[in-house]
Amino acid sequence: MTSDPLVARLRSSLGEKAVVTDPDVLDSHRNDHATFCSAGVPRVLVRPASTSEVQEVLRASSDYGVPVVTQGARTGLSGAANALDGCLLLSTSRLNQILEVSVEDQVAVVQPGVVNSALSKAVLGQGLFYPPDPSSWEMSTIGGNIATNAGGLCCVKYGVTGDFVRGLEVVLASGEVIRTGRRSVKGVAGYDVTRLIVGSEGTLGVVTEATLALRPAPEAALTAAATFLSIEDGIAAAAAVMAAGLRPSLLEFLDGPTARAIQNYRDMGLPADVGSLLIAQSDRGPRAAEDVEAMAAICSAHGAVDVAVASDAEESRMLLEARRLVNAALEPLGVTLVDDVAVPRSKLVALLDGIAAIGTKYDVLICCPGHVGDGNMHPTVVFDRDDPAAEARALEAFGAVMDLGLALGGTITGEHGIGKLKRQWLAQELGPVGLALQRQLKSVFDPGNLLNPDKLFL
Amino acid sequence: MTSDPLVARLRSSLGEKAVVTDPDVLDSHRNDHATFCSAGVPRVLVRPASTSEVQEVLRASSDYGVPVVTQGARTGLSGAANALDGCLLLSTSRLNQILEVSVEDQVAVVQPGVVNSALSKAVLGQGLFYPPDPSSWEMSTIGGNIATNAGGLCCVKYGVTGDFVRGLEVVLASGEVIRTGRRSVKGVAGYDVTRLIVGSEGTLGVVTEATLALRPAPEAALTAAATFLSIEDGIAAAAAVMAAGLRPSLLEFLDGPTARAIQNYRDMGLPADVGSLLIAQSDRGPRAAEDVEAMAAICSAHGAVDVAVASDAEESRMLLEARRLVNAALEPLGVTLVDDVAVPRSKLVALLDGIAAIGTKYDVLICCPGHVGDGNMHPTVVFDRDDPAAEARALEAFGAVMDLGLALGGTITGEHGIGKLKRQWLAQELGPVGLALQRQLKSVFDPGNLLNPDKLFL
């Protein structure tokens, strides 16, 4: 028995097992993967199993004036899924059904708690492809991907999560349900509320169903990897690959400090004076071999000191290894604080030069891997956890990187979102009129400010 | 001299020549290309030449409580640009500058009055490609394309206007200016207001600048055209082309009545019992020939009685001729009322069967060309202008087609928008909760309901 009337009501609506108040379980659900974001102590965790149960939860939260934080796999990197004191955590873990995969319409209809890799594998079994592939894809959920408009490695060719969301079912703060968008490829009936929900980080409603676009599965990708002695050469080669219309299905960049950290972690045969690495893929089937040869030739023409081209899937995997090792290689060096600026590609050299200067100014190591084809970099400040002075400098450097991104005509976040982490810079990026407008849009959906309040806006 | 204080204020702000009250000019600006949409008598037409002049106009309209209808080239098909009695018409004709084309960033920055074809040609000169190609592309403006989220022929491969809009400068009803979105490829900072403006038909603000994504120019497309004896075979062949992952850069369908009208207008060698035509293109350069052969083989395998494959650009143009002649061929038959339903591809045969039944029921000719790869059809009701009874039946048939599209899980508009023409069906498509939410979103942007009121919502 509980003395909490909200808990009693939820148990009555959803059943005992769907409502959790065990402090240990609640404690384990306080945070997502963001570092340096505070999290509160939740009042209760609920696991609704249907749209109507989500409606019950939101009606109860509204009646009791209790804020709701929706959580998928909590792999986010900006604290958007962090608990607030006294909040209700709404887990999508039981809303985990793939409701339909249509080969003819090339769509999937899923509940939000479906894990990205589960969907990807299910549709691949039918010759189809769900492209959005955030690094967290083996853990993160489609609902979380929608909430952050997640990107990934292959969005340089295919686009981000939002480009694959046709329509949504959403429970509003009032408990009412809307269906947005469509199942058809095209549709322009009214305002694009689907896109407004995508990337809204749980502040506008709870997504209970998504209709997702799929594509015919491409063939396995082939890889080329090139080593440069400078940042400029690597960036110029990436720009030339994009300009050539080769449509790489992956185009990743590692700067010198990142490459050296990887070489120290595992011998990849990289020279001590490595300036940058570029890794490119093509998945254009019969043309992939020709594409990667062309990309390799572009890299050579831009001063690459070593260029490797894979002739099969296994060699391709090996050439991608350096990219995959980034997190593992940086982890022994200290605490990492991952930024997510995106700039026009023409500003990438200025961004990387500026980041080096910021590292020097604040006396911290900043490694800079990134999705260079999209101009989306992840400058990663690395520092000693046991040194409070280093931590303070790291946080200042983290902010300076965002200021630099904005000064270069870019954005403070290419794919990770605002959450709690970047609220003060959102105000800077949007300006006062834009920010006020966004707050008003939230009020339309959530007049009581109960859906993930304290996120996005300061 | 004028006795109208609004006109006097506008002349003082914008100059004499930018403010038009000549009744003949006003009369010529009352309508867009929609048929069967009423239009009011405007009070004044203004042609601002800068963002700050647009701000002046909106401040004046706000102060005088005068509704504003923004007009591009008035090629829209839903009456969204039609005048209201006593309104101010805001023409974007002098906001017609291409401000920048960046080869490195693959973006263009343009004012809204730039004509689509002018932009397309300007960027092609630099090896770049702006894909959105509504049929009106030689006349329609980028601002109008954004206002309607215009589609076109090549969106089956490349997507619609909204997929190419990175960021906007927008003047709000208050006269304040916001910048939405970004110049970088990716960005998730805050709600996607850019996408909310795209397709909003002039009801949320006045776009004064757009940053558009470009792509490297593809090579000239090659064409295949196939003739079938039934609708089912043509639709099945189209589905098979899409399922094969061939990525056609155009995939158009003409049903039997449309094909026969074209054959009567000009001898294309089509059989009298033609059931449907399919026209497909590939622009994949060296692979295009292989692609169109593969598409032709798919058509043959699906029962095509005649398949032609172009070996060069001139032959490709000739094979597209039938598609280009649709409007000219239907025009002599009577007044045309063009619908714009889009359904999941799996429902296309049901849609076409249902449309035939609607034609029979209401005793009108309905021709059905369409963008079959996207499931977006343009069922066109044709009737005798001098027969009021036929007109009434045609309007009923027009509505019945939308009801059918909705019943098949589709949308009432794939690319033309709601305007005045489809307001009653928008309510049906969105449902009461969704519709109320959209009205509230408008109120955030336009609390005085002065921006294109009387459009979208009844």
From TrEMBL, chains A, B:
What molecular functions are annotated in GO for this chain? Answer: FAD binding; oxidoreductase activity
Which metal ions or organic cofactors does this protein require, according to UniProt?
FAD
Domain of life where this protein originates: Bacteria
| Pfam families associated with the record | FAD-oxidase_C, FAD_binding_4
Keyword Oxidoreductase, does the record have it? Answer: yes
* Entry keyword set: FAD, Flavoprotein, Oxidoreductase
All copies of domain FAD-binding PCMH-type, residue ranges: 38-217
- Similarity-based family: Belongs to the FAD-binding oxidoreductase/transferase type 4 family.
Q: What is this protein called?
A: FAD-binding protein
